[in-house]
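JOB MANIFEST
job_type = single_chain_structure
chain_count = 1
residues = 160
[input]
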Amino acid sequence: MTPPVATCPVTVRIQEDDFDIAREIALLTKSRTDIGAVVSFSGICRADEDSANIAALTLEHYPGMAEEEIKRHVDEAISRWPLNGVTAIHRVGRFMPGENIVLVLTASQHRQAAFQAAEFLMDYLKTSAPFWKKEESATGTGWVEAQARDDEAAARWTKS
């Protein structure tokens, strides 16, 4: 008898509503006996950035294109690592410090693949996903520029 072929369910969502991390993990792993590790990364709006006090953060995206671009990178992660499931949820709208912004879940039989794939996806989301971020602080409001440290982190995943 041939063992069942593992499938890799993928969820990519962009939404205004908050997400429940435990619920998303339960949805990803429900009735799955081939998953030995789930790595989760949740990004949260913080109150300060480089000594600036952040009052709020607004995230905008290009509907349709953003989902397709994230899915394309999820597919790349699946081709690089033996994954058994991926969830990527990115929120848009206005956020106060302490609120959830992004969730990446990667599931695999073993932890190393799940960790690496989650890190790969977060580096992509931080540097190249079609989102625009505006910060509000006591000194004013402005669009956030890309950070060299984020580009350097993402560069390690480039195939030679």
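[summary]
Residues 1-5 have pLDDT under 50 and may be disordered.
The helical segments are 21-29, 65-80, 111-127, 148-155.
exit_status = 0
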